[in-house]
Design a protein that fits this description.
Strand content: 5-15%
Helix content: 55-70%
Shape: elongated
Structural class: mainly alpha
Number of domains: 2
CATH topology of the largest domain: Arc Repressor Mutant, subunit A
Strand order of the largest sheet: 3-5-4
Order of helices and strands: EEHHEHHEEHHHH
Radius of gyration: 19 Å
Number of helices: 8
CATH superfamily of the largest domain: Winged helix-like DNA-binding domain superfamily/Winged helix DNA-binding domain
Length: 133
């Protein structure tokens, strides 16, 4: 567990680990949102809302200014990492196919890269897999 200025990776992941917190985090990431609007649109009780926004704030992911929430620089980095995870999940079956082909052991690196680029249409995921070896 890496600790940076009192924030650990575990704390950050914990703060977005449930669906409602992640949804709240995504909404804030899409643009500064007033707390009253967030409270109304997310279907959270007052206590749930404040608990979740407090956790996100303590993890260093969001800040509140003049009644609106926005991402911190760390929050922007975490949001982009979350987008990469979503891309991986949405390409799950394509990734399983690549794993299956690779497990044969009969594929050279050049063919591996060609297969990855053919099967996957997401450049970020392609780049991660190509750089893997």
């Amino acid at each position: 567990m890496s600790i940076i200025e009192g924030h650990s990776v575990e704390d950050i992941l914990q703060s977005i680990s449930d669906g409602k917190s992640l949804d709240l985090f995504r909404s804030i990431a899409k643009g500064g949102v007033e707390s009253e609007v967030l409270k109304e649109t997310k279907g959270l009780s007052k206590k749930q809302f404040y608990t979740r926004t407090s956790q996100l704030s303590q993890a260093g992911l969001i800040r509140r200014r003049k009644g609106s929430f926005s991402l911190t620089s760390l929050g922007v980095v975490v949001y982009h990492a979350q987008l990469v995870i979503e891309a991986g999940v949405s390409n799950y079956w394509k990734l399983k196919a690549i794993d299956s082909i690779e497990s044969s052991g009969q594929i050279v690196e050049q063919e591996r890269v060609k297969i990855i680029k053919t099967i996957l249409d997401d450049n970020t995921v392609q780049n991660i897999l190509v750089a893997q070896r």
